[in-house]
Amino acid sequence: MTTQAKPKAAVLLSQPKLRRLCSPACRQYLETHFEVHWNERERELSAEELVPFAEDAAYLFTSWGSPRLSESFFKHAAELRAVAHAAGSVKFFLPASVFEAGVRVFSANPRLSLPVSEYCMAVIFAWLRHIPTYNAALHAGGYRVPGLKGRELTGSRVGLISAGATARGLIRMLQPYEVEIRVYDPFLSEAQARQLGVIPSTLEEAMGCTIVSNHAPNLPETAGLIGAEQLARIPDEGIFINSGRAAQVDTAALVAELKSGRIYAACDVFDEEPLPVDSPLRGLANVILTPHVGAATQQADLALLPAVAEDVVRMMRGEPTRFEIAAADFSRLA
Amino acid sequence: MTTQAKPKAAVLLSQPKLRRLCSPACRQYLETHFEVHWNERERELSAEELVPFAEDAAYLFTSWGSPRLSESFFKHAAELRAVAHAAGSVKFFLPASVFEAGVRVFSANPRLSLPVSEYCMAVIFAWLRHIPTYNAALHAGGYRVPGLKGRELTGSRVGLISAGATARGLIRMLQPYEVEIRVYDPFLSEAQARQLGVIPSTLEEAMGCTIVSNHAPNLPETAGLIGAEQLARIPDEGIFINSGRAAQVDTAALVAELKSGRIYAACDVFDEEPLPVDSPLRGLANVILTPHVGAATQQADLALLPAVAEDVVRMMRGEPTRFEIAAADFSRLA
């Protein structure tokens, strides 16, 4: 294969990012299909460095921490055909005008829903079986914990707020447990609900389940969707999970409900991240706290860059793409 | 319905046990089908109290903590037709000679495998996603934990030691994750393995998986089955789960492997229970410890007595039973 035949690609990812996200096989794949300009720095490019680094590229590969591509950058990038984001949300890295220049946009976001669905299973089971409580008791020298008794997932009721990709993964993982699943999603049709095997429900009905998981998209219309009134609908000893976005849940109301000891919760996302040291969530024994790691798995890390790289190659070959974002969907992205 | 038509049943369970295991509906079911002699005591019957309490019963209902039924008891119990154990292992409550007297034996053991399978899912996911580590870090005021990265269950390799009811439940629950399951079970035929979708394996092969779960039956032949050599086969960062019986695992070898920091583990069963305060397992951050609660769920508690009661009624009607133990299987019971 001759070098001249390959289109130019600029990989903006810093060396630390590449060590995490780009396996030797992925590096080889990129070099097979592109003339690659690698970011050899140990840090991200600055906005000033971006133009000389990437202005002649036909394809741009970006990820978390990559510099935002401004409208002025696109004036320089005359050859650019696509931006491929090896991470989740791409919306804040690009101006909406990107599509007017005929540039196509890819995001590995769909690959990130699988680990988040698995995270939800992890914290559902953790609270159903009181793993944090028992484990703390035994490591502290105790054994039995009076008044504590586990519960089965099988036969329980699960409420899902929104039926996006993560919720659908969760529905699939709940399949062996004969659970009743109530979904609140204004955009879910009766036919889709039937196909998923779930019951279309009001927000109130979904919040009334023993296990409630928030997957609402991060839009202005969903901000504060789950407040004191909604949390009060969770039955006693119910489990509330937020692995989605913090803005949809009224944190003060959740803290009040947790302080009453009435429910259990797991939070992976917070209004402010890193979670402030003085957050009232810290120290409450009935909430599992994790540092926004719902999508953070070894497997997902290594899958993101190949996912968008292979999709760009499909685009180059005129084949149907899998990770491309249509211009019409861009503004509605979470 | 006249009282005379009902056979006599003695329910040995103490009042505290009945409050936990016998719902009002279950009490009514028993009183509909039997003339019930309830143990009105707040404690278990002594061996001496047993004979006058139960000698005229046709059906005996027992559970954890019930007195052992000796051969001499059976000499008194001339009317006895069945013993129904509303709990797991029934072997140690009865002499093997029970069958010679024509008494039939029931155990709710099969109903207890479901919560143990779910327990295994709980601790598998807990370690795959480092829930104990992250949760401890955040509650202690921290946030990110350097060097820690979750893993996905999807696509991983799971080794099961023995293919009993709990392992089969786990196989079913692993179905959504496209895992490769290697099973070590000398009694599992190729055809059964194919039907379960698992790979028949040597003990060494099963122990070489990323996730290994022990379900070996508690028999003299399986004592010490998993020692230092077998544990050493678990890959680095692998997860070892013992929700079965303690005797199958060399605890000193497990402690040594855990102290090296090479693997993660979850133990629900111990050589001595309650776990001694000075157990070397306590305080090791890479082992989840729970107080033999694998089968302990609210749902299972309330299902045990109905399970065997309904089965005894099936026997009375000459219908096929579901929870009965054949004489030939009794000595091989775990």
TrEMBL record, chains A, B:
Any single GO molecular-function term of the entry would be: oxidoreductase activity
Q: Which UniProt keywords apply?
A: NAD, Oxidoreductase
Name a Pfam family for this protein: 2-Hacid_dh_C
Q: Which parts of the sequence belong to the D-isomer specific 2-hydroxyacid dehydrogenase NAD-binding domain?
A: 121-294
Question: So which domain of life are we looking at?
Answer: Bacteria
Which SUPFAM superfamilies does the record match to this protein? Formate/glycerate dehydrogenase catalytic domain-like, NAD(P)-binding Rossmann-fold domains
Q: Does the keyword NAD apply?
A: yes
InterPro entries (UniProt xref)? D-2-hydroxyacid_DH, D-isomer_DH_NAD-bd, NAD(P)-bd_dom_sf
Q: Which PANTHER family match?
A: D-ISOMER SPECIFIC 2-HYDROXYACID DEHYDROGENASE FAMILY PROTEIN (AFU_ORTHOLOGUE AFUA_6G10090)
Q: Which family does it belong to?
A: Belongs to the D-isomer specific 2-hydroxyacid dehydrogenase family.
Instruction: List the protein's name.
Output: Hydroxyacid dehydrogenase
Q: Which organism is it from?
A: Paenibacillus sabuli
